[in-house]
Amino acid sequence: MMETKLRVSASISLKLSNVHKHFGSETRRVEVLHDISFDMAAGQTLAITGPSGSGKSTLLHLIGTLDQPSAGSIEINGQTPFSLPEPELAKFRNQVVGFVFQDHHLLPQYSVLENVLIPTLAFKNKNGNPEKRARELLERVGLAHRLDHRPAELSGGERQRVAIARALINRPSLLLCDEPTGDLDRSTANTVASLLFELHREAQNILIAVTHSLELASRFGKRFELVEGTCVEVGINLKQNKPNA
């Protein structure tokens, strides 16, 4: 059988077509998401809102290839990632998707610099000198003076800034955030959000976040609300939604 090869595309795009996700057996099936279709291009931003249990994180995991849809298709940069063998899918995810979670998930035994470098260790890095880039990113997020510190020595906002730098280390096409400001006070949340948007504009990647914060959601170009398992578009910020805005 011919092995499917990983394609690297210079263009950045995301397309979901009639995506469904259910859990359980046929007799005890729970439908979480159904008939979700949308597409995005480089430079665009999307916030996904909805009550707890509505499927926001499930949708983000599908987009990030952490889980497979039950039906429908997801294309990233023209590639159907779930057609790849598992080792190639892992490589695709590592090089194309960056994740920022509510809990920063930093490893406590490693320094700030080492935590940012972790995504570069699994596969050969295509971006030159990883340590140089990590240092540049940490300077960019205001943590050049914290390179040798451990996560326990940082504030919550600082830890989340490290997580953003780590998510960007491999220059991902997709930057996916799951409640990125949920554990932060309002002032720190606004600072972290502004940094996230600033770095997104510079990279011109696709930025998607799930959030309970309507204040954060209002800063995105598009906003979908998950209602009974499907996406309902709430409104469009025309300026923010332009690919090069």
Secondary structure layout plus pairing:
Blueprint: E1 13-23, E2 30-41, E3 45-49, H1 56-63, E4 71-76, H2 86-96, E5 97-101, H3 112-117, H4 130-140, H5 156-168, E6 174-178, H6 186-203, E7 206-210, H7 214-217, E8 222-227, E9 230-236, H8 238-241
Parallel strand pairs: 3-7, 3-8, 5-6, 6-7
Antiparallel strand pairs: 1-2, 1-4, 8-9
Helix pairs in contact: 5-6
Quick description:
This protein is an alpha/beta fold and 245 residues long.
What does this structure look like?
This protein has eight helices and nine strands. The protein has 245 residues and is of the alpha/beta class. 39% of the residues are buried. It has a six-stranded mixed beta sheet. The protein has a three-stranded antiparallel beta sheet with strand order 2-1-4, covered by helices on one side. Helix 6 links the parallel strand 6 (174-178) and strand 7 (206-210). The protein has helices at residues 56-63, 86-96, 112-117, 130-140, 156-168, 186-203, 214-217, 238-241, and strands at residues 13-23, 30-41, 45-49, 71-76, 97-101, 174-178, 206-210, 222-227, 230-236. It starts with 12 loop residues before the first strand and ends with a helix. It is globular. Helix 5 (156-168) packs parallel to helix 6. The longest helix has 18 residues, at 186-203. It has a single domain, classed as P-loop containing nucleotide triphosphate hydrolases (Rossmann fold, 3-Layer(aba) Sandwich).
